[in-house]
Design goal:
The protein is mainly alpha-helical and 257 residues long. It is built from 13 helices and 3 strands. A hairpin with a 2-residue loop joins strand 1 and strand 2. Helix 6 runs antiparallel to helix 7.
Length: 257
């Protein structure tokens, strides 16, 4: 882009820093962040700070990420949330508790903060503490936005939620998921243990997320090689993303989703 004379804007740098974070490019990420003002004439905004916290967190540099947030002029909930997600990823309960306290001081009704904290306990096997956190959230009437999936077929929109039982073709969908599960296990694909949070693999695959239900419904409702367009109001979890990716390539590179 620079060679072609394209002007770098705020969104471009967000994409660049996000790519560095997801790819774990620890050296280049901070370089581009520090170069925003002197080279591109852009002042870092909250999205750029969040990308940096995410990059440091994914790289297990949790203390550095915490110091980075404290050095920012106005620590926001989104920054602490990115760090709490990293604490869940690496099972750092001690830091996670401290970060969650900062989140609840800024936003007492942060449902995602409660969910991330309880999942942090779950990754370390502290199921009782996880359940206690969930109970506290419910007692305070803090509810998370439910994850919903939409898939449009023949001009009709179909909606799925986690462990959905309402769709009229649910028995066929479950059967398709069971076949996918057998195929994936035969090919040696295990879901990441940390993503399961001590649930059984079978439960996640067969009764799992709305993404899987919508994907299976699309498979049984369309001819082979039909692209599937699936929308969600929240971020797709890593497990469902990996499943879709694996299935796409197993079908001779067919990009169905």
């Amino acid at each position: 882009m620079c060679q072609e004379g394209v002007i770098m804007d705020r969104a471009t740098l967000v994409c660049l820093l996000s790519a560095c974070s997801l790819a774990g490019i620890l050296n280049e990420g901070p370089y581009y962040f520090k170069s925003m003002n002197p080279i591109y004439g852009l002042c870092p905004e909250m999205e750029h700070y969040s990308c940096m916290v995410d990059l440091l967190g994914r790289s297990a540099l949790l203390s550095e990420a915490e110091n980075f947030i404290k050095m920012s002029s106005q620590p926001q909930v989104s920054l602490w949330m990115a760090l709490l997600a990293a604490c869940r990823l690496h099972g750092n309960v001690q830091l996670g508790e401290r970060v969650a306290k900062c989140i609840f001081e800024l936003d007492p009704e942060s449902a995602r903060g409660y969910v991330l904290l309880s999942n942090t306990y779950a990754t370390t096997g502290e199921s009782d503490t996880k359940a206690n956190i969930q109970n506290i959230r419910k007692e305070r009437h803090v509810y998370k936005q439910p994850g919903c999936i939409w898939i449009q077929l023949d001009s009709q929109m179909h909606t799925f939620v986690v462990d959905d039982k309402e769709h009229p073709r649910m028995m066929e969908i479950r059967a398709q998921l069971k076949e996918l599960s057998k195929h994936m296990k035969k090919e040696g694909y295990p879901p990441e243990e940390q993503l399961l949070l001590h649930e059984s693999k079978t439960e996640v695959l067969l009764h799992g997320h709305s993404e899987m239900l919508a994907f299976a419904f699309g498979l049984i409702s369309t001819p082979p090689d039909t692209p599937l367009h699936i929308l969600k109001n929240l971020q797709v979890c890593s497990h469902c993303y990996e499943v879709h990716y694996e299935i796409s390539w197993e079908n001779n590179g067919c990009k169905r989703c």
